[in-house]
Specification:
The complex is a heterodimer of chains A (269) and B (332). Chain A is 77% helix and 0% strand. By secondary structure, chain A is mainly α. In chain A, α4 packs antiparallel against α5, α5 crosses α12 and α12 packs across α13. The relative contact order of chain A is 0.13. By secondary structure, chain B is α/β, with parallel strands linked by helices. Helix content of chain B is 35%, strand content 26%. Chain B is built from twelve helices and 14 strands. In chain B, 47% of the residues are buried. The C terminus of chain B is likely disordered. The chains are: A mainly alpha (269), B alpha/beta (332). At the A-B interface, α1, α2 and α6 of A face α2, α3 and α4 of B.
């Protein structure tokens, strides 16, 4: 055994990309794709909302407060964010799974950078968010939405979904790393309700009753929805897009900084 | 310099639990060193500190010459670790798992290295299957393989056979011996007396976060001067038998485990016929009476005042060992 093993256990020049980031990213991707229950449900709810809601409420756009007649296009950003948020919750759950099985310890024992553990996971979460968003977007087009800003606007939507996915995944990863508990991490999905529904989800912001408008105006998701909605229903409204990106980056800074801090705390117990 | 050197190690968890309470030990290059103790004795905590997964509260620890606190990366490169929960990934195949592990350690040819290790632990046929479908023994072997990708000088095995059936356990033992013969220093923890006895060159008995005895298995056993006379009755009158043995002048102490009685006796060979006569006179019917030398269990009992809890869950490996069966029965 000794004679054989020495021939191939020589080590190569270590590279962050080929020895850490890419192999772990691919492993996370495989782990996601191999669990059908982690692929389909995150798509089901947003698509369900998109189809049923827009059928039921489609005529609401006749109200003067709407500046579009295309309710599917109006609602599409909400469905995109829903699918991205559920992808983000799934991220923490698979991290808890790694912690519970001890695989996370095995990764901590490897001579790799601590940061990679989270970066490789977030890269996968972003990918997953973008892929799911693409499927929801195509569904929207199939049931009649017209993206006013065209293919370029669609691309913008997917890129925003990718980064919003990163920022949102930070939340479940913080809980996963701090608690190591599947129940607690699962519960982080509850955050999704105030974030997505205390926002101009079904009607424009001005149409919300007073208190709800106030709450919605301090909810970062509001600005993400409005930025995306500009792309689906009107034009490249740079002011709205600027606010959307500010909200995504702001949320991301808060969640990802805390997530990396939580990782550090877990790695240095 | 020893391969593993620990001085006055203390670990206090948040909340105040003192899991490790001043441990010092050293492991020489090429040894199989064992940590024997019950659940919660501090074995796993110590291993996690030595393998850089846990910070220490007080004391010093060096592994492969590196300070675990100051140079954790150097330690990680020198050691292989298989923790108690085989840290494996149910959704990957065995081959993917070892290839990934080889990449993380920057092995030049990860594909070839994975194939080699699959061969070494006898999992080539299962290489394409997802690990979730593996048996407990296969998972453990794969975990050991994963710990070996970079040919570490020191291998830490935390309870490598807990929960394994006897056949799988023998495979792990054979693997440990083979690795040790090829020059790897082994630090293992176990709650099984047979395992400590069979595998370790030297061992430390740990209980309540402290090392209570240390030495080679033979040194430890010969530290107990008495012989053990083992008695089983066929008529269920153990209480009387206990009282009788306890009263006998030559008996240092009597241990009762259910229907089994163990008497620690000076000069056991002379005592056996006396006991047989005495039982006969008292009308107690003997099912079995035998004489044995002290075991590590007796050493443990002497050092800690209690038996090794959970040892009764050990898989029966070598039933031909005298007294092996009775030793593991639970106290009544």
């Amino acid at each position: 055994m000794a004679a054989v093993t020495t021939t191939t256990s020589a080590t190569a020049q270590r590279s962050f990309i080929t020895h850490e980031l890419v192999p772990l990213y691919l492993r996370n991707l495989r782990a996601w794709l191999r669990v059908p229950s982690s692929v389909l449900p995150p798509l089901f709810v947003p698509v369900f909302f998109l189809v049923v809601n827009t059928s039921a409420l489609g005529d609401i756009t006749r109200l003067p407060v709407f500046d579009t007649q295309d309710y599917v296009a109006f609602f599409l950003p909400v469905s995109l964010l829903m699918t991205v948020a559920s992808a983000g919750s799934g991220s923490g759950i698979s991290l808890v799974n790694d912690i519970t099985t001890g695989y996370f310890d095995k990764l901590l024992l490897a001579p790799i950078s601590r940061t990679t553990l989270l970066v490789s996971r977030l890269a996968m979460d972003g990918t997953r968010a973008a892929l799911q968003a693409l499927i929801v977007l195509i569904t929207g087009l199939l049931i009649g939405a017209e993206i006013q800003t065209g293919i370029l606007g669609g691309l913008f939507l997917i890129v925003m979904a990718f980064f919003f996915g990163l920022a949102y995944a930070g939340i479940s990863n913080i809980i996963a790393l701090r608690t190591g508990s599947a129940e607690a991490t699962q519960a982080s999905f509850i955050l999704f309700f105030p974030l997505v529904f205390l926002a101009p989800t079904f009607v424009p912001l001005e149409f919300l009753p007073g208190w709800l408008e106030t709450v919605a105006s301090i909810n970062p998701i509001t600005y993400v929805i409005e930025g995306m909605r500009a792309l689906t229903t009107s034009h490249f409204d740079w002011a709205a897009l600027g606010r959307a990106w500010a909200a995504i980056i702001g949320l991301g800074l808060v969640t990802l900084t805390s997530a990396f801090r939580a990782l550090k705390a877990r790695a240095n117990q | 310099m020893p391969t593993v050197e620990v001085r006055d190690l203390v670990k206090v968890y948040q909340g105040g639990v003192r899991a490790v309470d001043g441990i010092s030990l050293s492991v020489e290059e090429g040894e199989v060193f064992g940590f024997l103790g019950p659940n919660g004795a501090g074995k796993t905590t110590t291993v996690r500190i030595l393998t850089t997964l846990l910070s220490l509260t007080e004391g010093e620890a060096y592994v492969a010459g590196h300070d675990v606190t100051r140079h954790p990366d150097a330690v990680r490169n020198a050691i292989g670790v298989a923790l108690q929960e085989a840290g494996i990934d149910a959704l990957q195949t065995g081959r993917e798992f070892l290839q990934l592990q080889s990449r993380l350690y920057a092995i030049a040819d990860p594909v070839a290295r994975a194939d080699e290790l699959l061969e070494v632990v006898g999992l080539t046929d299962a290489a394409e299957r997802r690990i979730g479908s593996y048996s407990g023994g296969m998972k453990r072997r794969l975990d050991v393989a994963a710990a070996l990708v970079h040919r570490p000088r020191i291998l830490f095995l935390d309870e490598p056979t807990t929960g394994l059936d006897p056949a799988s356990r023998n495979q792990v033992w054979a693997e440990v011996r083979r690795l040790n013969e090829s020059g790897t220093t082994i630090f293992l923890t176990t709650q099984y007396l047979e395992e400590a006895d069979a595998l370790c060159d030297r061992l430390a008995i740990i209980d309540g976060g402290r090392i209570v005895a240390e030495g080679t298995p033979d040194e430890l056993k010969s530290g107990i001067a008495e012989d053990v006379i083992h008695v089983t009755l066929s008529d269920g009158r153990e209480d009387e038998a206990f009282a009788m043995l306890d009263a006998a002048e030559s008996v240092v102490r009597v241990q009762r485990s259910g229907r089994q009685l163990d008497a620690y006796v000076k000069n056991g060979a002379a005592a056996v016929p006396r006991f047989v006569r005495a039982f006969d006179e008292a009308g107690l019917e003997l099912a079995e009476i035998s004489l044995r030398r002290p075991t590590l269990d007796d050493v443990f009992l002497r050092a800690t005042g209690h038996r090794l809890e959970g040892a009764d869950a050990a898989p029966q490996a070598e039933p031909e060992l005298a007294g092996a069966g009775s030793r593991r029965r639970r106290r009544g």
